[in-house]
Design brief:
Layout: E1 2-6, H1 11-24, H2 38-59, E2 63-72, E3 75-81, H3 95-103, H4 106-114, E4 116-122, E5 126-128, H5 144-154, E6 162-166, E7 187-191, E8 202-207, E9 211-213, E10 218-225, E11 233-240, E12 243-251, E13 259-265, E14 271-279, E15 292-300, E16 304-310, H6 315-326, E17 330-336, H7 350-355, E18 358-362, H8 371-384, E19 388-391, H9 404-407, E20 410-412, E21 419-425, H10 427-430, H11 441-449, E22 454-456, E23 462-463, E24 468-475, E25 483-491, E26 494-499, H12 505-510, H13 520-533, E27 541-545, E28 549-551, E29 556-562, E30 574-580, E31 585-589, E32 591-594, E33 597-602, E34 608-618, E35 621-633, H14 646-656, E36 660-661, H15 667-672, E37 678-686, H16 692-711
Parallel strand pairs: 3-4, 3-6, 6-7, 7-36, 9-15, 16-17, 16-18, 18-19, 19-26, 28-35
Antiparallel strand pairs: 1-2, 2-37, 4-5, 8-10, 10-13, 11-12, 11-14, 14-15, 20-23, 21-22, 21-24, 24-25, 25-26, 27-29, 29-33, 30-31, 30-34, 32-33, 34-35
Length: about 725
């Protein structure tokens, strides 16, 4: 260890100051009143000299440089493939058994003696390795690129080399061969398994529309292959829930080629339906884990019927019409008002009012709107309470809807005062699903920030307390307060969204050259429709799963929203969930995420159907309960291609400067890795004048001297 000092001024001045200080201090204790012993005077002198010397030293702002040198063995992380494909038995032993045998081999033990090894298990991410018992070989995918990136970003010691043990079955993320130049360490790979394709039958694809409708024929497409079973006849079965829908007998093609099987299905009840395509097992196949695929389909009673009532023809009407027509799950009905108050398409019938699922008021009503039509509209609204999307532009005339508080999210719109404003996403907007056109909050915010300015017509609408301002507008003058642009409200199952601006078409025209924003307006309107038409039964607890079919080995994310009696988000509740499977029940406490939202991550659930029951409690009062269901599929991408891929491992080693070997040639790695000890130099810089502990020492010395003098009555 080396210690060097650095001062603000030349050390000669510090030494001179010390000599002067030590020469003057004895005069203070040459004689004392009352008289004291020489031992006492010497003790006080030492305390004061130490304190004053330390103060003088700190005034010179010393910097202490420590250099620590030590010899260490090279650090080598060992990455162990823990994915499901390692259970494949394509040789006398499974790949997992071959790997464990390698970890017990003499070559690996020699490496342990000459290097500092840190072991990690991985599939799509790194997990610290504790023992062979922690290897379950259930990882659903293998992402070699993500694993090596994670090691590169998070390693805490200089990496001499990386030892990667795998079958090379990379099936997620970017290709590792193209990322090799980004890793600053050589990767030495050991490959397990055979690269030849073993006899196996598998379902590779299951395709169906996510949203379908009752009593309408739904096409379902499945693909399967069976390398090694040429001309063998198998049955492919389609099931909806536990009910068999159709069965097809097919002949497996040669050379492992895919064959496509088409089914037809007519759903008979609304709600989520689980579709399963399965192929019978064949004697001698490698595994039956890939013989079925599952997906969930949402069945609606009918398409959502959207009624647009426009105050006049215009570009906004044309833009909205085109965007709504693009959505195949909507039926569009348009009424465009004439200058005299009638409609170009004819009057709106009672049946059209009755069957409407969503009404869009586009600059409607206006001065030209007849009292008779508005009276009819108001009566039908009071009866059916459709969700409303209101665009209040320059021609919009505020009128009473009868049940006024439930129709608008504002008490009044205020005076008309047009101004150009720049859209700004609010904090309430970040928490709301309507403005979130991307799952990534930062990307959603970036899209809103790129939007061109719009004309806001109402600077100060009286927003109701239970409404939320999702988007505001910033005027050119920073002194002017922001204007509410998009306001949303949901109360007692009745929802509405108010836009206090028009010229929406500009968002589509001016953003067309930006590839990320071309579909912005379509996605925004799609979110509006989804939120407005979603059933809201006022439940105080609402469970949400990201998907209804999960992959084995992947974490299952459960989310919950908790509301009070006035449907305001509840913070600080205790939300417990029971995850009930066929053989076991798991109890979990959800973690608060803010704004009445809670989350739980469930790991390592086995395949099967699950029911989740949530209960929210606050102050010993049960706020509510909710239930949802999901399935964990036995299918894993690891079994779509069961071959080992030594070519991928060899490419990783080649571009990083390592080598690829088979388990039997592991001694070659010992000769190629530089295993000589390395001198590690660590340098530290200490600035004592910045440490409170040094000031504490000075005060302690002076306090000790003061206490001794006080005891002798010298104060």
């Amino acid at each position: 260890m080396q210690i060097n000092f650095e001062y603000m001024f030349h050390p000669i001045f510090f030494v001179s100051g010390l000599l002067i200080l030590w020469g003057l201090l004895p005069f203070f204790y040459r004689q004392t009143q009352p008289p004291s012993s020489r031992l006492f005077r010497t003790g006080c002198l030492i305390l004061r000299a130490a304190a004053m010397s330390l103060i003088l030293w700190l005034l010179f702002k010393p910097v202490i440089h420590l250099t620590l040198k030590k010899v260490e063995k090279p650090y080598i992380p060992v990455l162990i493939d823990n994915s499901a494909s390692m259970t494949v038995k394509d040789e006398p032993q499974s790949r997992a058994e071959q790997m464990i045998r390698f970890l017990r081999s003499e070559a690996f033990r020699t490496l342990e003696k000459k290097a500092t090894l840190e072991l990690f298990a991985f599939s799509d991410r790194l997990v610290p390795f504790h023992s062979e018992d922690s290897l379950f070989f259930q990882g659903p995918v293998t992402n070699l690129t993500a694993v090596l990136d994670e090691l590169n970003n998070d390693h805490h010691m200089p990496v001499r080399a990386v030892l990667l043990l795998s079958d090379g079955g990379h099936n997620a993320g970017y290709s590792p061969e193209t990322r090799g130049n980004g890793w600053p360490f050589p990767v030495f790979t050991v490959g397990f398994g055979s690269s030849r394709e073993m006899p196996d039958v598998m379902v590779t694809t299951l395709l169906s529309d996510n949203m379908v409708y009752m009593n309408e024929e739904v096409p379902v497409r499945a693909a399967m292959r069976g390398p090694g079973f040429k001309d063998r006849t198998v049955d492919v079965v389609l099931r909806a829930g536990d009910r068999e829908i159709a069965r097809r007998r097919i002949k497996i093609p040669e050379n492992g080629l895919e064959t496509v099987v088409h089914f037809k299905w007519i759903p008979e009840s609304p709600g989520p339906q689980k579709l399963t395509v399965a192929v019978d097992g064949v004697d001698g196949e490698l595994t039956e884990n890939n013989n079925r695929l599952e997906t969930y389909v949402h069945v609606r009673k009918h398409k959502h019927r959207v009624l647009i009532i426009a105050g006049a023809p215009g570009p906004d009407l044309g833009c909205l019409s085109r965007l709504f027509i693009q959505n195949e799950h909507l039926e569009l009905n348009i009424r465009t008002q004439k200058p005299g108050g009638q409609f170009y398409e004819g009057p709106v019938s009672i049946s059209e009012f009755r069957d409407t699922d969503l009404c869009v008021l586009l600059d409607m009503p206006t001065e030209a709107t007849t009292p008779a039509f508005w009276q009819s509209f108001r009566q039908n609204y009071e009866q059916y309470h459709w969700p409303l999307l209101i665009v209040a532009g320059s021609r919009f005339e505020e009128r009473d809807l009868g049940d006024f508080d439930r129709a608008y999210p504002v008490r009044t719109l205020g005076r008309l005062n047009p101004a150009w404003v720049r859209p700004v996403l609010t904090e309430q907007g970040i928490q709301h699903p309507v403005p979130m056109i991307n799952q990534d909050i930062s990307r959603s915010r970036a899209c809103w920030d790129q939007l061109p300015p719009v004309v806001s017509f109402r600077p100060r609408p009286a927003v109701l307390p239970d409404a939320k301002i999702l988007l505001s507008g910033q005027a050119a003058s920073a002194r002017e307060e922001q204007r509410p642009l998009i306001i949303a409200r949901s109360i007692s199952g009745i929802k509405n969204i108010l836009l206090t601006f028009n010229s929406i078409y500009r968002w589509q025209l001016l953003m067309w050259q930006n590839a990320d924003s071309q579909s912005f307006l379509f996605r925004f309107l799609e979110n509006c429709v989804r939120w407005l038409t979603a059933e809201d039964d006022g439940r105080p607890v609402r469970l949400i799963t990201e998907d209804q079919v999960m992959k084995t080995g992947m974490p299952v994310i459960i989310k919950a929203e908790v509301y009070d009696e006035s449907l305001q988000p509840v913070e600080g509740a205790s939300v417990k969930i029971q995850t009930i499977g066929s053989n076991d029940t798991l109890y979990t406490l959800m973690q608060g995420q803010g704004n009445g939202r809670y989350r739980a991550d469930l790991d390592a659930l086995v395949s099967g159907d699950y029911r989740v029951v949530a209960e929210a409690v606050q102050h010993n009062h049960v706020l509510g309960r909710d239930t949802t269901r999901f399935s964990v599929s036995a299918f894993q991408p690891e079994f779509l291609d069961t071959r080992a891929h030594p070519d991928i491992l060899s490419a990783i080693s080649r571009v990083t400067g390592g080598i690829f070997v088979s388990p039997d040639s592991a001694d070659l790695i010992l000769s190629k890795i530089r295993l000589s000890p390395e001198m590690i130099v660590n340098q530290h810089e200490i600035r004592p004048y910045r440490h409170p502990a040094v000031l504490f020492v000075v005060l302690l010395l002076l306090s000790a001297e003061w206490w001794m003098r006080r005891r002798k009555g010298m104060m």
